[in-house]
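Hi team, as promised in this morning's meeting, here are the two structures we talked about. I've kept the exact order from the run log so nobody has to guess. The first one is mostly here for context; it's the second one we should focus on when we meet again. Sequence first, then the predicted structure tokens.
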Amino acid sequence: MASSQGTSHIPSLASPTQRMHLIHVDSVHRWMEDLRYMTEVECMCILQSKPISVDEDAQSELIINPEHTVRDNLQTLLKRALIISSELTKMFQKLEKNRWQRVHSTAVRANCHVRSLVNEYNSFTRNSPPEIQKYEKALLEKCMELTIITERCIHTEDEYFLMSMKDSIHEILTSVGESFSHMIDMALANEIQVLVRQIELSDNMYTIGTAISSLLGLTQEGAHLCRIIAKEGAVVALFKICRQDCFRCLCAHALRTLASICCVEEGISQLEKVDGILCLADILTDETNPEEMRAEAAAVVAQITSPHHTFTQHLGSFLENMEDIVTALIKLCQHASSGEVFLLASAALANITFFDTMASEILLQLSAVRILFEACRDRKRVDTPYSKDQVVTVLANISVLDHCASEVIQERGIECLLEMLFEKPSTSNPPEVAACERVQQKAAVTLARLSRDPVVAHTATKLNCIPRLIELCRSPTERSNSDSVLVACLAALRRLAAGCPESIDDSDFQQLIKPRLVDSFLLCSNMEESFV
């Protein structure tokens, strides 16, 4: 009998047809896309300083693709920049380990990629700005210096020399990284300016729409690019589109892009400067506007009022328009035609209740408790744990008001809150699991706050909220091992026990109610299995 070790390295053979089935079309397509960025090092070393042609027109024919769009240019820059950043990171790592051969080969690759990036960028800009040319020159010189120095290091075993070179290489690498970052930022800004000018100056719907799509795509590349987009005037240009009736069909698209840009402080600051809040209020309150447009405006409001931001203090004009915005948002929740529209409107409301406590008073006056509980019973509007998370966030924040309890009782809201305590993910998808945890936690928080009212405490006890809260405390799997759910449930349980002590068994009282909260928490958080 052959041992498993003897056969482990023998690949299984397959027929040509079977092998073809192993190749996924998307993977091949991705490989072909990436191939042009992964050049052969030896070839590039030979060609890097040799002109293809002295004839300018002939050279252009070989290098420039006439179909290049600004979006193509930006994607090319971003892909090449990612590769170069990766190579520089590898070089730092290899340098720390004194792996000189690897340091040199990585330096050669980085040098080739930098030259390719510079050539590519100059090919589609024809005449790059002087500031960029300055960084290009410095970057190319530093990369060549890096290649020469690292080559010297692989031809010696003198430890003293290598250690002295290590500091020099580290210094050059740092300089290369800084020059590279500056050059890429300016190149990206230069291309983004082209898109912004297209939005500002063109009267062609297709051209403007394509430019907006390109900006939206770039916002998905991360916060750093969003900052550049905001600084280059995109927020101003997009709000101009939103304010002109002739571009009404592009407004929703522009608002979606604005919501992405405003994930950074620079975007929100620009929005404030161009009276963006007033524009959003006008869009939301005009019920003749398409629902899609109002939903995208709600998304911008949700973004700029996010409690995760630490820089919302300068949104002074928001307070001036808050009542109109809140009124429009609760109406959008009430009449939403889909779960997506409801999610955007309710997310904006949830964030606003964190942003200013006056919003809770306004919502109570607008019968928000009734509207939100009605929505929870409508699967067309509230169809995911993400929507329920927004609803229960609003309820938790307005439940601090004394006169909220009577409305919750009137709308049979305790039943809905109990259902939320049973919220469970349908998949193991981490975002969905986290959303379900938030729903359970906030439902427990809302119950605890509302149970200050004896009528609420009695109703919750009568509906068997206490057994479910105990189960969540004692069974880690029921709460997806969430400590925040455990703390909220212990707090709610103690509040209900204070009003209805007879509804708690003695063993539960001794373990979950009588000890200090931290002791009960430690007891429950160490339980492996439920013993309810």
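And here is the second protein, the one for discussion:
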Amino acid sequence: MWPYLISKARAGGLDAIDTYVFWNLHEPQQGQYDFSGRKDLVKFIKEVHAQGLYVCLRIGPFIESEWTYGGLPFWLHDVPGIVFRSDNEPFKYHMERYAKMIVKMLKAEKLYASQGGPIILSQIENEYKNVEAAFHEKGPPYVKWAAKMAVGLQTGVPWVMCKQDDAPDPVINACNGLRCGETFSGPNSPRKPAIWTENWTTVYQVYGKETRSRSAEDIAFHTALFIAKGGSFVNYYMYHGGTNFGRTAAEYVPTSYYDQAPLDEYGLLRQPKHGHMKELHASIKLCRKPLLSSKWTNFSLGHLQEAFVFERNSHECAAFLVNHDGRSNATTVHFKGLSYKLPPKSISILPDCKTVAFNTAQVSTQYGTRLATRRQKFDSIEQWKEYKEYIPSFDKSSFRANMLLEHMNTTKDSSDYLWYTFRFHQNSSNAHSVLTVNSLGHNLHAFVNGEFIGSAHGSHDNKSFTLQRSLPLKRGTNYVSLLSVMTGLPDGGAYLERRVAGLRRVTIQRQHELHDFTTYLWGYKVGLSGENIQLHRNDASVKAYWSRYASSSQPLTWYKAIFDAPVGNDPVALNLASMGKGEAWVNGQSIGRYWVSFLDSDGNPYQTWNHIPRSFLKPSGNLLVLLEEEKGNPLGISIGTMSTTKVCGHVSSSYPPPVISWQGENQINGNRKRNHGRRPRVQLRCPHGRKISSVLFSSFGTPSGDCETYATGSCHASNSRAIVEKACLGKERCSIPVSSKNFHGDPCPGIAKSLLVDAKCS
């Protein structure tokens, strides 16, 4: 998918691709490096370079980024005396060794700009200021050491530290956040540029918190403001988030990552974000000569309005007119003898200090609707085979300890799963008993004498939880098996190596007696039996373990089925809405965890579709394997494809025409030959291979609503649909001028009009 995704980013007006370097991917075991397959960092950078883009390399090696353990390999946890991210010799030794290895590898391929390569910027550390105070006197020396170590690697390109206002010279301090044009105090030296390393395009999802997005208008406003204030570099986090395959997501982070980014999880254009940002980028690049050759001046245009002007001479001038007022209606300002109407909370960009090329609040690009189309069902019991997971008892445990062990330090991240087991004697069978388990993460499934009695879980912001269930005990020896489950490792915070998870206290209330089993003889087993025999592989050695599907669902059951790849090129996904919680594999490759049973405050799952890259698939005979922790129903699973099925545009006659109408920089500075008669337009475009098959709605006049809900208003041109159908039907793309002339007359003279069109792509 790399070439396609990079090309879409380039088409969106980007100049560079940022990427982290994932230490726990590239050195999963100490001294054992892996740059194969999709871990091939050099190949990725060369692909970016081949498409004419630069690279900004965020080496970290701590990266956070909702990635398990913040990108640090777990073996680092067991280095004697280590304290992560502090003035600590063991940590500094391994961090420097890793950074040197990465830089040496990239230098050998001549990938730095100083060697003619694409890498123009590198990052060391990541948002360290957030935790620095917690390390007391060990924090500031670490910052200075990290900066000196990085610069000493002699890459020939600058280094940056994000959210580190006191980044030592010559390392550049940078901003992360939603509003760096307003919150960034600026470079800590006049020799450093203003850099925004993370402009968040949405708010990433976690289990237990409400889903929030960010509008295209808000992203555009704050990006333009940062540039207006002299910003040199803006990186969108994320422009494409993609999929947390396998077990790479951090704790309580879904498999789908930044699906609301300009390129969604599947690589489809998220409209209008992608298109609106493309217009913004083009309008800023129209200003590049004055931006690069002039110092900016700033002056007030009103109480909450101001201008940022870059003017070298009468032929090289660009202006950003800013309206900070988001509460009132449009505000009229006066600039260089002309009047400009600024919508609330918006910035107008004037590449020649006269004509508005773009306004951040006026979205003239299309909106798109993504639809999942079911291609194959798995609703027949003959399609499925199953393997019931073995529930270990104390007698079958792998090792024992007289205490509750910490989960992560016991599994060493080799599995999400750790069995805690114990046994005790019961003199009678009818005594009422209650089991209470306190845990720090992240899920718990409880079994007594091999029978399931209940589950419990925490959430991203409240990791501590309690399971309390009545115990169905028998006379004699009873066996309690508690499965602790991690849904990703923590990814941030000070003293990450000291974080704990798993069971913290276990008690049984029997009649009037409370028995505490916290300090007791416990048996342990790391992982599940299905993991140990690698049931997810299409291997003859595991075929004997599978049996016919029994349709009586029970927790901890593995399922497998065979399917053919859907025809065509649309992205493929697995619909797991009928399942509970677990992990899925296709042809031996994990497509990530799923947790459909975790519902938001509206009662909806956070994610039901898991992305299956087409490169994972064969034309036919694909193996699907599921580990279901709860009682999901595999007969409700289906395979589908994702595509943009509807496109919609809503453009007012007061909007600027498309930026492409400027036809390049030569029409701004010196030889202005623009056709000022160009009009704003509704521009619609279906995905490649699809055409506009029907116009669902069309109104020129005063349509109400937006692209989600709409209706004709009091003013409506009766020929709206006919005009649009003539221009668009049967075409992959079309462009309709928003003008009375185009609709053969003015349906309501003296009233501002707009055109709203909703169309179907087939």
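Starting points for discussion:
DSSP finds twelve helices and 40 strands in the chain.
The longest strand covers residues 638-652.
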